C-alpha cells in the first residue's frame, strides 16, 4: 500500500480510511501552528474527515490507485481547506435530508450535512477529474 | 481511539477514548458493541467522557448499536456527553433518539 505524501501544506493519501489519522494529525498540526482554538480545530477536523471519507468512498470508489488530496491555507481571518478526489463525483443534492424523521436512524448520510452546519462556507466543484470541495472557517 | 470496558450491576459500560473518525480504530467500538449483543448483553452504556470528538462515522456506530440492541429487546444509553458531541447530536437531531445522562451512575440507575 502506498504511503501518504506531504508537500508543504497539503497531504495526499491513497483511498483507504486507514489513512484518516494521518490526515487528522497533519491538519491539526498546521491549525495549531496558525494558533487556532481547540474547539474550532475539532470542527474543522470533523469536517475534513467527513469530506475525505466521502472522497474515498463516493468519489474514488475506494480504489487504492486513486488519491484524495487535502490542502490547508489561512487567508486573513479564515482557514480554507480544499479536499480533492479523483472520482466520478457525487451529487450532494441527491442525499436525503438526514434530519427528516424517516432518516434519523440511518447509519450513514450525515457527512455533508454536518460539514455545512460546522463550516462558514462549503463550495462543491464537480469536474471530469474528480470532485473538489472547498470549506472555510473564520478562526480569529 | 482505544476502548476500555467493564460491567456495573450487570450493565456493560464501554469507555472509548480519543477520536472516533472512521478507519480501523472505529471498528473497535462497532465490534465491541456487537460482541456485547452476541453475548446476550441487552443493557449497554457508552461513556463518552474521554472522546475528544467524533464525526458521522461515530454517530453511525452509536445508531447501529442502539437499533441492534432495541431489536433484541435491549437499550443503549449515553453518559458524560461532551459539549462537542452534544452539539453534533443537536445538529443532527439525534438528541431526540438517544437517552443521555450526566454520569455513568445516573445511566446505570435509569435501567
Plain-language structure description:
The complex is a heterodimer of chains A (140) and B (111). A six-stranded antiparallel beta sheet of chain A has the order 1-2-3-4-6-5, covered by helices on one side. Chain A has 140 residues and is of the alpha+beta class. Chain A has one domain (5-138): Histidine kinase-like ATPase, C-terminal domain (Heat Shock Protein 90, 2-Layer Sandwich). The radius of gyration of chain A is 15 Å and the shape is globular. Chain A has three helices and six strands, in the order ββααββαββ. In chain A, helix 1 (20-33) packs antiparallel against helix 2 and helix 2 runs antiparallel to helix 3. Chain A has helices at residues 20-33, 38-59, 111-118, and strands at 5-7, 10-14, 67-75, 78-84, 121-127, 130-138. Chain B is of the alpha/beta class. Chain B has a single domain (2-106), classed as 2-Layer Sandwich (Transcription Regulator spoIIAA), CATH 3.30.750.24. Chain B contains four helices and six strands. In chain B, strand 1 and strand 2 (11-20) form a beta hairpin. The A-B interface holds A 17-21, 24, 39, 42, 45-46, 49-50, 53, 98-99, 104-111, 113-114, 117-118 and B 19, 21-25, 52-57, 59-61, 63-64, 66-67, 84, 88, 91-94, 96-97.
CATH architecture of chain B: 2-Layer Sandwich
CA-to-CA gap between the ends of chain B?
27 Å
CATH superfamily of chain B: STAS domain
Give the CA-based shape of chain B. globular
**Using DSSP, what is the number of strands of chain A?**
6
Cα-based radius of gyration of chain B, to the nearest Å:
12 Å
Identify the quaternary structure here: heterodimer
